Structures are given as structure tokens and as C-alpha cells.
Predict the 3D structure of the following.
Amino acid sequence: MAEATLRIEALTKRFGALIANDHVDLDVLPGELHAIIGPNGAGKTTLISQLAGELAPNEGRIIFNGRDITHMPSNERALMGLARSYQITSVVTSFTALDNVALAAQAIDGHSYRFWRPARLVRHLNDKAAEILNEIGLGARQNVLASNMSHGEHRQLEIAMALATEPKLLLLDEPTAGMGPAATEGMIGYLRSLKGRLTILLIEHDMDVVFTLADRISVLVNGGRIATDTPDKIREDPQVRRAYLGDKAVSLRPAAKDA
């Protein structure tokens, strides 16, 4: 088995008496799309926030490409190639889609975030931004102000901004949240095209999205990991099915076949 791009060892996060993550162990392999699922309150977003450097763990270690980044600030993690879809920079609503992605590309280009006008005039930043927007399906919207874009387009734009930093590991927290069926299908197609090109850790409530895309799935319940396996094995795992009793049970049905 290839050495893990990301290794989480006994990661624990407490908020007073509440244990949000309880000694979580997890490996994410190179080029893998690894999904994390679990009921509301399972600790999924807390986990990904620790990986991004937004929350400090109480215990455990985070190893990224062989380096311990447990106590590394988020900006240094980003420079190492770890990107979170909405963490790199917030969408600037007074900027166009192209300007937003070019601003994100500026982070690895040796420019300062404090000086936007010079970066806007750098042709290769705009060319890079336009290429990414075309790939993600926003090419025709590149000159539209972000304030005039839909929620689904904002989600696409946030991912485009993360990709502009050339990540080695992309953390995606609910990328299809708030999207309609057509936009969701478009996002699935784009994320499928990224498989193998970079490593992705995905949190997603839509089980059709998860079972369509994931190479492996890890299940969190009450802050702890109860299973990691292929989609087919996760779907049939009795412990996982018990964790999804009630309104979640139906979501573990097989995903529809591709057209």
C-alpha cells in the first residue's frame, strides 16, 4: 500500500465536557477520494477544521506528506499544499469570478495579498484563473460579479479558488450543499474528473454523491470512527446501518447508475 498522503493518529478534540473527536485514526492515500460520513453532530466538521489548522487538537497527531503539521498554522499548511474549499480566501462579492480565482492564485505566486491591483494585471494569473473556471463549469460566468452569482455558483467558485493554489490535498466540506439537481450533477462530474489528479477528503451529506465518487468511506459516530472501507462494504456494514437508523437509513441505498 502506498504511503498515506494524510495520516491522522488518535486525534482528539474536546470542548469542555463534550468530546467532538475521540481518538480518531485515519489514512488518506495518494490520489484517493476519501469521504467522511456520519449523523449530525458526529464530529465531521470539527475533524476537518483541525486538519485545516483552524482548531487545535487536544491530543493526537496530523501527518501530511510525512511531516507532522499538528501545531502548524493554517497559512503554512496551505503553502505545503493543503487547501480547504472555503478557507483559502472568502469570496469577494465586489470582484468578478475571474478576479476571485486570480486572487487565490496570487497566494503561491510570490505576491502579497495586500496589493490587488498589480496582481489583477498579471496576465498569467488571469489565464490560470480562466482555465480553472472553464474546467469547473464557470467559464461563461468569469466576468460576472460574485454578488450576482447563485449559491451553487459560489460553491463552485470556492472550489475553483482552492484549486488555484495547486493543492496536494483538497478538503471539501459539503460542496453540493444548497445546490439543485442539475448543479449537483455538474459538481459530481467535475469532482470525478479530479480523481487521481489530487487527493481529496470529502464531507458530504448526500449519500448519492458519496457512493458515486468515493474510493473509500470512513464513518464517524459520536466523535469516533466506527468503520473505513469501500462503498459497497460500508453500505452493507451492520454497525454503519445501525448508526443511520431513522431518516438516514434510506440514504444508504445504492446510488443510481451513471447515464
